[in-house]
Amino acid sequence: MSNLLAARLQMAISLGFHILFAVAGIALPLMMAVSEALWLRTGEPVYRALAKRWARGAAILFTVGAVSGTVLSFELGLLWPRFMKFAGPIIGLGFGLEGFAFFTEAIFLGIYIYGWDRVPPVAHWLAGVIIAASGALSGILVVSVNAWMNTPSGFTLSGSTATNIDPLAALWNRATVSETLHMTLAAYAATGMLVAGIHAVLLGRDRAHPFHRRALAIALVVGGVASLLQPLSGEYAARTVARTQPVKLAAMEGQFRTERRAPLRIGGLPDPARETTPYALEIPAGLSFLAYNDPNAKVAGLDAVPAPDRPPVRVVHVAFQVMVACGMAMALVSLWAAASAWRGRKVPDGPAFLRVVAVASPLGMLAIEAGWTVTEVGRQPWIVQGVMRTAEAVTPVPGLWVSMAVYSTLYVGLGVVVALLLGNQFRSSPRPEELASAAQEGEAH
């Protein structure tokens, strides 16, 4: 196994695990804060119990996310030393600010978990709001660094050296808004639907318990609103990619030829040898209109660059199709939930609806994994688009397959631990004494 392949596989495995912890850690605190706000407004103890339960889940995700994120920071230096030497002075500000957001989240998470009976209720709720905001900011800052890798800016290239460095310009690059918006909505949509699926299953088993009904409602609102907004952010992101990374767009759509009135393809499996995408349902001029708001616009194909500069089109196209399909399915479930709630003036709880929510619950996380595949693999063979190739950035140290095995084992272990801990938190309804305790604590405040 070559160093390049081993390093890329190791980063893929590491990022694939870490991103699941990270997105759940972004969205769960928001639902926690919403639940506590409802308790402050209504006084219903079930909301206080729910906020406490979600806070414990957020603490677990934060801890594991911190471990996996620390490992990733080491991997960047160990696997890609030439990239870090070049990019460090440019993107260091983004990582530094992310560290500030991380420590802010840690401080207020401690206040939130241990301050239920020690600080005023409104101050306690504000601590939860700060946790949710700092978690979202942390994700935005990290994604802005990835956006810089896709659309590098904030420096002048003199030979192979970066000069005239402007870290703020690097942080606010051409893809920052589209990527951070799309990823933040994805975090809320994926986590909201996943949590909704868990409580849909538990509500089906215990239909008389108010805990899961309230939890399902909050999760559906958070996940549903984000799911319905996500196609709009996706359109904006696609237009940004068309302007800044036309080769990536061509790979996403299986577009081999540069042409006007380029079709939008649904499905299909690209054939690089024949430079066609058979089995696809083609919408005439759809890609030209989507990318440039003009059905007659010219769309660059993979033929615009030499073969060595093309990404693995099959991987990128299939991953993109999976992401879009999962996103559309979640949006349809959210529309069903909204329509049912509008008609019935309550949380939909029919057996068919609960089953559909349960089945759809992992689609958001699958969409996130597919989307990151599109983002990273679609940029190849570049680690920094148009500036540094991935092969130039990898470490020359041999034997990376051993490192890959060790780190993979670590992440599998972390995944098992998280699954067991979260399963212990959410697999059962609160006991009557837990709700009674929440009621008594609420009356004391």
Decide which structural class fits the backbone. mainly alpha
Number of strands: 8
**Major sheet details:** 2 strands, antiparallel
Q: N-to-C SSE series?
A: HHHHEEHHHHEEEHEHHHEEHHH
Strand order of the largest sheet: 1-2
Question: Can you offer a commentary on this structure?
Answer:
By secondary structure, this protein is mainly alpha-helical. It has one domain. The protein contains 15 helices and 8 strands. The protein has helices spanning 3-42, 45-79, 81-114, 121-150, 167-171, 176-205, 210-244, 246-253, 286-292, 313-344, 351-360, 363-377, 390-393, 400-426, 432-444, and strands at 156-158, 161-163, 259-260, 264-267, 280-283, 298-299, 382-384, 388-389. The chain has a two-stranded antiparallel ribbon. Strands 3-6 form a two-stranded antiparallel sheet. It is globular and about 65 Å long.
Keywords, separated by commas or semicolons:
globular; 73% helix; 445 residues
Concise overview:
The chain has 445 residues and is mainly α. It is built from 15 helices and eight strands.
Give the topology, please.
Layout: H1 3-42, H2 45-79, H3 81-114, H4 121-150, E1 156-158, E2 161-163, H5 167-171, H6 176-205, H7 210-244, H8 246-253, E3 259-260, E4 264-267, E5 280-283, H9 286-292, E6 298-299, H10 313-344, H11 351-360, H12 363-377, E7 382-384, E8 388-389, H13 390-393, H14 400-426, H15 432-444
Antiparallel strand pairs: 1-2, 3-6, 4-5, 7-8
Helix pairs in contact: 1-2, 1-4, 1-6, 1-7, 1-12, 1-14, 2-3, 2-7, 2-14, 2-15, 3-4, 4-6, 6-7, 6-11, 6-12, 7-8, 7-10, 8-10, 10-11, 10-12
